[in-house]
Design a protein that fits this description.
The chain is mostly helical. About 75% of the residues lie in helices and about 5% in strands. The protein has helices at about 1-10, 15-30, 40-60, 80-105, 110-130, 130-150, 155-190, 195-200, 210-225, 235-240, 245-265, 275-295, 300-320, 325-350, 370, 375-385, 395-405, 410-435, 450-465, 465-480, and strands at about 65-70, 75, 350-355, 355-360, 445. A 3-stranded antiparallel β-sheet has the order 4-3-5. The protein has a two-stranded antiparallel ribbon with strand order 1-2. β1 and β2 (about 75) form a beta hairpin. α5 runs parallel beside α11. The longest helix has about 30 residues, at about 155-190. The protein is globular and about 70 Å long.
Amino acid sequence: METSINFSKFLVILPEIFLTLWILFFIIFGVFADGGNLAKQRMFTLVATLGLVVTFILIFTSDWRAARLLSDLFVQDRLAVFMKLLVTFTGICILLISEKYRSFEKLFIYEYPLLILFSVLGMLIMISANDFISLYMGVELQSLSLYVLASMKKDSNKSSEAGLKYFILGTLASGFFLFGVSMLFGIAGTTTYTELSVILVNIDNYSPLLALAVVMIISSIAFKLSAAPFHMWTPDVYEGCPTTVTAFIAVVPKIAAVAVIIRILYIPFGNIYDIWYQILAMVAIISIFVGAFGAIVQENIKRLMAYSTIGSIGFVLLALSSGSQQALESSLIYIVIYSLSVLGCFVIIVSMEKDNVALEKITDLSGISRTDPFSAICFSILLLSLAGLPPFAGFVGKFYIFRSLISEGFVELAVLGIIGSVISAYYYLRIVKIMYLDETEEQIIFGYNFSSKLILGISSILVISFLLYAKSVVSFIEYISYSVS
């Protein structure tokens, strides 16, 4: 009987164990393989992708029922499984769209797919963490990989600068996190989520030390989410990184960070709502308006997407600030739609080139509706979804967020969110206007491979047809969200 229990617990963490072993195999494989030519680089990408595909299958076929193991350091529930699936799926997509970009940028670096695997492993640990110590291990494994990825173009000053800025500010955020956790341990005598949820019920909610600990922990996670005013690294890092790395940072870590903040707010901090809801609401509103006004003046498409990310994360935090079950559901719906839309956008951005040189200016998109109608219509659909215009998926995501706020009595926050959404629509519509109405003498090329074109087409179809299956998605998200306890 004991053997059976241990084996069942082993199966719960099998995806993480498999991915760890695959990374070790990949390191040995890379050492003995010659990585100096394009064919070998494609083989590396294929091996890394295969590892993530198997991990995805193992996660999907694992037990979705709630389970805790490793002395309550690790938790498995429906939310964890769903967010892990989303992380591995988007990670696979990023690897697939990276191949063409790496060939014309001459990024023939075997470490690139290896660091993607390391980062994904860190995110899986983050999502299933049930203790601030195990969470920190996952965060640092993810972050250290991203620091190196950001500075991967060794001959680019912008890439080196991006990696250095990301590292310095990321280290500062980690310090905030550890300081907050140490104070929390001093107050409660534990760092385990489930134990904290019980202990903090009997502690004065207005204890200054507890409030400071909560502020520091939330601030460090807000940094990972690119939420304002902790966003200062985001535009520079997005611009300086290799574009496929920017795509990875814009999508995959955000999913993991949203899963982390949901679990923290609803479990260890669930009984001290009065401390954190005002902080979260303030950060959300600042993020929405910084994202809206910051993007308007941008001429670089990657910097614009950075401010778009800041604004989008603001809407997620705005929903969570009400602390209700409906808010949890609406934030999950929105992050799924955001991931799908931004992933499709970056397929186009990654593929922008002319004479084998990557392009990044918004004006480079002038007149592409006549030279490449497929790219123009797909990009328009995805941008209008991010703007939250009907009948696209983004409208449904924002509708559920505002509905959850109003139903909980946060009408003022909903109104501010709507105003921010209207302002942000301007810079999305501006790109559509440039693609369809502006003239250009120089024609750019979209260097899609088959995988990129397939991902772009599917994401666009899913976004534009979301209303047809929205009820099923919402029902599934409701099923997922009730596992958070």
